[in-house]
């Protein structure tokens, strides 16, 4: 025995050491693989972003090169370019022609804008206030034409960008550097429009040294940075060039917002630099998953598997040492059968315990100390009958739900003939049906106590409505017993109070209240429709009820 124990102990120690070593190696490998995968994904993304930016910048250069000897006052300046620019990437928001106009050219420019069909040809500042040519002493940059033309963009031609700090700085750089440049991030089209960048390419006629105008293309920032990939390993943020520690991020809908990075916040996993419009833009990449935690979890799983295998080897070694091979096989077959039988019995025990727990709660609350045995017997039979009825209805529908009006049946609900039921014929989920069936029985079983006092049957109404749309739909149920007062209606039992005030509302994820009016007793229940109907439960049971298709 001592020698056998020593051998088993040695095997166990060796297994523990090997399991720990394997877990350590797996941890390092998983961590390295995640970092490599993240780095490669970031490099690919940065390369794609750079390619997109280069293509958009090339479009501006090509478009500006098509202007051989442009006339800045000609209407529809972009007309020759429309087919050409759409042959390239068409994800720009607006393409525009901005002309540099002298003060004596404003009148002719206004006429050209009117001839092009734009509704507001008045030459005006960026704040839409008219510009007086007599007060101008230098040339100004005016938007003369744009593409596409829509209700939102037709009102833009005629604006001067000299007062816009972002666009005027972009045009000044393009005029001085005589190459395409990009603006700082700015709202496009309007002050609350999508955030994007504008690339401007100067148009310089042959033999001239100064540009006569600019071709501009506006792009949404989210699409340029490829930030809407839900399956990506990382989230992308653009460093704001105007603010230290500022970043621009886009959500899943492509809406860009600004945020400030603090020293306490998470640092980006990596940064990459891309060139666009004659300047460098820095992208910050934030990993969506914690590689270290994932590697630790994998290592724990590997170690647990190793320890389990070690324990199994030690147990098997001790078992084989006391038995021959034939007896070992027979015993293992028996053990396997017993384990399967135990699993089935455990599952059966679990389900039976749940049913017994509900019945025990009903019996305990119904047959409480001091209760009338005849009343308790009727309540107990009725409550169990209500459970049996809803289970039968669910079985008939293959647990696909029960029509709400079907719960108001005479065989399960007392005084069902005196209940006026109104409401849409919705199908509630199995869980909701069980709670509502007990709820309706509990309400109906207390509705006939005041007959000897009031001298007539109380009139009962049960109605429900559904308000809202989509995920905001709300189920409203109202039970009202007329010709009933607090003096004539029997107080609810302990079980009834728990069911009315807590169990039913919690099962449906809603709220309930009960009160007396001058002429009636009212119970109201409000719950979200997604818990009352529960389409996920219906879809799941529908799949389980479908016949299994044979494998071909």
From TrEMBL:
Membrane-spanning ranges: 299-322
Chain ranges of the CHASE domain: 142-225
EC code(s) of this entry: 2.7.13.3
Keyword Zinc: no
InterPro entries in UniProt: CHASE_dom, Sig_transdc_His_kinase_HWE
GO molecular function, one term: ATP binding
The keyword Transferase appears for this protein: yes
Domain of life: Bacteria
UniProt KW keywords: ATP-binding, Kinase, Membrane, Nucleotide-binding, Phosphoprotein, Transferase, Transmembrane, Transmembrane helix
Catalysed transformations (reactions): ATP + protein L-histidine = ADP + protein N-phospho-L-histidine
Protein name according to UniProt: histidine kinase
Organism the protein comes from: Bradyrhizobium cosmicum
Lineage: Bacteria, Pseudomonadati, Pseudomonadota, Alphaproteobacteria, Hyphomicrobiales
């Amino acid at each position: 025995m001592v020698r056998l124990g020593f051998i088993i102990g040695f095997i166990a120690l060796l297994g523990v050491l090997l399991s720990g070593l394997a877990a350590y190696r797996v941890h390092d490998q998983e961590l390295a693989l995640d970092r490599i995968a993240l780095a490669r994904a970031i490099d690919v993304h940065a390369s794609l972003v750079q390619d997109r930016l280069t293509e958009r910048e090339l479009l501006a250069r090509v478009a500006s090169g098509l202007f051989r000897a442009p006339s800045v006052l000609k209407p529809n300046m972009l007309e020759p370019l429309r087919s050409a620019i759409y042959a390239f990437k068409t994800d720009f928001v607006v393409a525009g022609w901005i002309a540099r106009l002298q003060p004596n050219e404003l009148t002719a420019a206004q006429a050209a804008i009117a001839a092009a069909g734009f509704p507001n040809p008045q030459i005006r500042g960026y704040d839409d206030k008219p510009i007086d040519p007599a007060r101008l002493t230098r040339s100004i940059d005016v938007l003369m034409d744009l593409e596409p033309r829509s209700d939102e963009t037709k009102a833009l031609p005629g604006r001067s960008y000299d007062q816009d700090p972002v666009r005027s700085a972009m045009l000044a750089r393009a005029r001085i550097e005589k190459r395409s440049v990009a603006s700082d991030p700015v709202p496009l089209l309007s002050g609350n429009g999508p955030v994007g960048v504008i690339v401007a390419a100067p148009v310089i006629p042959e033999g001239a040294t100064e540009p006569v105008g600019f071709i501009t293309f506006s792009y949404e920032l989210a699409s340029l940075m490829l930030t809407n990939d839900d399956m990506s390993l990382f989230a992308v943020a653009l460093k704001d060039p105007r603010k230290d520690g500022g970043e621009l991020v886009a959500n899943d809908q492509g809406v860009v917002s600004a945020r400030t990075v603090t020293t306490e916040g998470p640092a980006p996993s990596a940064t990459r630099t891309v060139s666009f419009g004659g300047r460098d833009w820095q992208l910050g990449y934030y990993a969506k998953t914690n590689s270290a935690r994932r590697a630790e979890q994998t290592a724990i799983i590997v170690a647990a598997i190793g320890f389990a295998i070690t324990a199994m080897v030690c147990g098997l070694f001790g078992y084989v040492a006391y038995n021959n091979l034939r007896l070992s096989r027979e015993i293992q077959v028996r053990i396997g059968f017993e384990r399967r039988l135990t699993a089935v019995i455990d599952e059966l025990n679990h389900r039976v315990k749940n049913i017994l727990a509900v019945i025990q709660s009903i019996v305990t609350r119904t047959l409480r100390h001091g209760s009338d045995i005849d009343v308790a017997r009727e309540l107990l039979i009725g409550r169990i009958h209500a459970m049996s009825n809803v289970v039968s209805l669910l079985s008939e529908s293959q647990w696909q739900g029960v029509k709400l009006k079907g719960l108001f049946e005479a065989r399960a609900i007392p005084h069902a003939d005196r209940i006026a039921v109104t409401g849409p014929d919705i199908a509630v989920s199995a869980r909701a049906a069980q709670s509502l069936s007990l709820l309706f029985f509990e309400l109906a079983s207390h509705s006939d106590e005041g007959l000897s006092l009031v001298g007539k049957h109380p009139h009962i109404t049960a109605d429900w409505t559904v308000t809202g749309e989509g995920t905001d739909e709300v189920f409203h149920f109202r039970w009202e017993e007329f010709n009933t007062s607090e003096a004539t209606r029997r107080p609810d039992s302990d079980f009834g109070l728990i069911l009315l005030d807590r169990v039913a509302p919690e099962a449906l994820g809603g709220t309930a209240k009960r009160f007396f009016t001058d002429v009636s007793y009212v119970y109201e229940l409000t719950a979200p429709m997604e818990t009352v109907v529960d389409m996920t439960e219906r879809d799941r049971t529908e799949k389980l009820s479908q016949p299994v298709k044979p494998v071909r």
